[in-house]
């Protein structure tokens, strides 16, 4: 093996090339992994290198010297490509969803090339790594990126020892490289920032390192990606739906198979996400082609959009209507596969925000999806006092002025 600095440079270069072709990973509100959904997104059955569960004990609160409670964190390892004893260790950070294995992705190509061991721990609280059966707001207070980063540090040390024991050596220290996308991309960069001695580099794919309170740019980007014609069709659809809700026509929800969403904001958020997803994951035509065609041939835009939402967003992509329902988000005992919605909203409401509000001008989504809607959701779902202090979050990590080196974004 080359020196670790050389290895980092080589890895970094390859990553820049590979990251572009990589599958999009991570999502603001992930569809439940496992059963059928997530079309083309997550790794489906047979697309994992391994799904064999392993466990380690983690302190519940890394910041308390007196609280010695622990919880079991799930992780996976794949050693087929590992060139012992000098090969590096690639740590793939699982983000805001249940972590069901190590996906057979670009990472596997990299691991083969560099003779790396692959490991992937699940994020605390998500999937099977929850410290509590009941996800009450009180019990969620140990869910934060800061605790998650400390988990990664403890895991890194624990796994190094496991590896050393397996290969009958002591005190060895491998070259570690961390990977992640979206929120896990931010964790990847932040891990390198906060624990520079534990990793020699970080890939932060689409890393959301800057916390934003009113994240209007998200909607603006959708409009730009759509292009003028499709954007206009989307905006007209939004106006029509808004109008129907305004005049008390709740039947419009039925059209989308979303009658269960009593709160208009929840319903409109579902529609906004449904449109956004086509652009976020690079399939603009799925929504634009039918809408633009309907506009030209005089077909009802709302009905056309409703068909897209039902067939594509819910059918193919695997989104869940219920997950937009604040009543559902209040459930403190969801299944491990479905807990991600409540958990991610907690992180949004308590730390990172990224409120995907409508810009005051020219928005694609309904203007009713505003700051108030988000704050009301946070209060309704988690109670008083849960509030995202994005200023402190950015002060802690540095936002886009993140310090340090050996990152690939
Ligand atoms: C492990 O190391 C010990 C002590 O050096 C040695 O006695 C033993 O044979 C080694 N075992 C293997 C499997 O290499
Ligand atoms: C976010 O938007 C709301 C409503 O437009 C506004 O009142 C608030 O000051 C904004 N907050 C920040 C931090 O920009
Ligand atoms: C008009 O466009 C819609 C949406 O693509 C399509 O479903 C419909 O069949 C078209 N109608 C006509 C009369 O061409
Ligand atoms: C909003 O749009 C109007 C009309 O297009 C424009 O004059 C105004 O500058 C825009 N405001 C902002 C804040 O972009």
UniProtKB/TrEMBL annotation:
One of its GO terms (biological process) is proteolysis. GO terms for molecular function: dipeptidyl-peptidase activity; serine-type exopeptidase activity. Pfam families: Peptidase_S28. Keywords: Glycoprotein, Hydrolase, Protease, Signal. Residues 1-21 form the signal peptide. One of its GO terms (cellular component) is vacuole. This is Uncharacterized protein. It comes from Zizania palustris (Northern wild rice). The lineage of its organism: Eukaryota, Viridiplantae, Streptophyta, Embryophyta, Tracheophyta.
